[in-house]
Amino acid sequence: MRHLNKKKKLGVNAAHRKALLRNLFTSLLASGKIKTTASKGKELVRTGNILIERAKKGGLVSQRKVASHITNKKVSITFFKETLPKLASRTGGHIRLLKIGTRKGDGAKVVMVELITEEGTQKTPAYQTAGGDNREQKIEKSVT
User: Fold this and answer.
1) What is the pLDDT of residues 13-38, one digit of tens each?
2) pTM of the prediction?
3) What CATH number does the domain containing 93 carry?
4) Strand order in the sheet with 95-102
């Protein structure tokens, strides 16, 4: 039984999975967005948000733990000096997952994983963006 093991196995052994997620996280920090399969993307969002929150805590130990998950030294430096201050205003959800479709060759579900660095880009509910005030008017018309 897999009690308290929330990781996805991704069809590879532990060392391969660890290297895969580290490389995906490094690529995400380097370019801002990457394309990958849905299962890898979901696991990247889970681990990436944990690492970013740990980096935001500050302190030398936290910085070294996060830096150990970044495989490129230049990317690590730019992450701590430039990207992390942009992420400091958000309380969570630093990585966005957008579904693209299916891959032509094997039919795998493909997603776009991107780092959210803009400030104040909280999602508004759909009823506020599409017809906001009209919604109340439609309800009143349907009652009468």
Assistant:
1) 989 999 999 999 999 999 999 999 99
2) 0.77
3) 3.90.1030.10
4) 33-37, 109-115, 95-102
